[in-house]
Fold:
Amino acid sequence: MKHNRGSIRVDSARLTGKGGLGPINSQIEAVETVDLSKQDNGVRSSKLLQHTKLRVLIAVGFYCLCATDGSSGGSPAPPDGVQLTITAPTNEVVIAASSGFTFTTAFNYLLITNVSVKFYVGTNFVGNADHSPFSVVVTNLAEGRYQLNARTDVIAYLGTRVEAPPVFITIGKTNNNPPVVSLKQIEFGVLYLPSVVRLDAQASDSDGYITQVEFYNRTLAFTNLLGVVRSPPFTMIWSNSVTSDGGYFFYARATDNLGTAIQSRDVGIGFTLVQPPNNRPAIDVVLPGEGEEVSLRSPVVIQARARYLDNNINPVDFYTGTNLIGSALGPLYFLIVSNLPPGKHTLSAVARDLQGNEGSGGTKMITIKGVQLSSPKLTSSQGLEFDAQFYPPGSLTLQITTNLVDWVSLSTNRVSGSSFHFADPGSTNYFQRYYRVLLGP
Structure:
């Protein structure tokens, strides 16, 4: 018997077999305890290691005496060679949704004949069989992927439970059309340190959907999984992984919802690693158009085109004047904003490469038209006060109401600038009063 480190103690034992004997405390003839810590090449363990030998008096027959160390909390592993195997259906088979299937197992320990096998789909019990061939019929499974499990309780014979390795099946169309996948040709052969390789795959499935796309790098010596993307766009960035000049091969592997996988053709490229030039990146704002007019709170799409970015994957920052309004990742650098205040805005973008070089380029001028009121404040001297920011400059009409229905013009002012400050000392005479500003007379 092999001895693992640990403390084994037998206070009582149960011998069972065809005779079905019960507890045999009274039948233990002798107990011998050996301290294994003194037999471990002179090295004593901090934990007492003991092995208990039992000699018992029983009738002639087939028996198994099992002892556990009390620490595992479960049944011991089955003896070597004792196996329960799922023989049908086979692993990764696709079964038509309209038909059932026979779930079959084989148990190879012939010395035990009184065996019952329990069958499960996932964790759901679907039946049991108590004679060979051990099988049940499974029907009415919805389309999808399932894990099949089986086990037999032979604790009475072997002191343990034997479980079969799981099998995975798919319920669906048996004439499944495989997915289609291709890897886009890599457009550059010179890599600036630190290296960045962008991999783009196109994947589709005519009678289902794509569940994942795996990206691989293949060499003469090995195939390396680089990453898995589970939703479109099927794109990944391979960073700091090309460490030497030479040829590299890449491919993508797409899997559909029924488990069918197809591999793309290889895309090969020869890389040359060089130190990056100290060139500043350049970037131009291409949208919106120059001089475009937009109503207040309408969305504005700002898009930029970057050049000489030396494999840059840093965000591009967008500004109106000197105020940062957002950032965007490439290669389509765009931003949507709807909170620009009234007035003229100069839109610009700033790009930074991996070496920290910063550059900018062409700008665009746009106009936001409308009126925007600031949050009001109440003062003891001036009553209610607020500011109005507007464009274009011209006449402003200030109106008031107490019920949001009957508006009365309080004053009309012609303002040369694009902002106006208003104070209403009489506002404290009202329980509630509302204000609005209209452009024009």
Observations:
- The first helix runs from residue 155 to 158.
- DSSP finds one helix and 35 strands in the chain.
- The radius of gyration is 39 Å.
- The first strand starts at residue 28 and ends at 35.
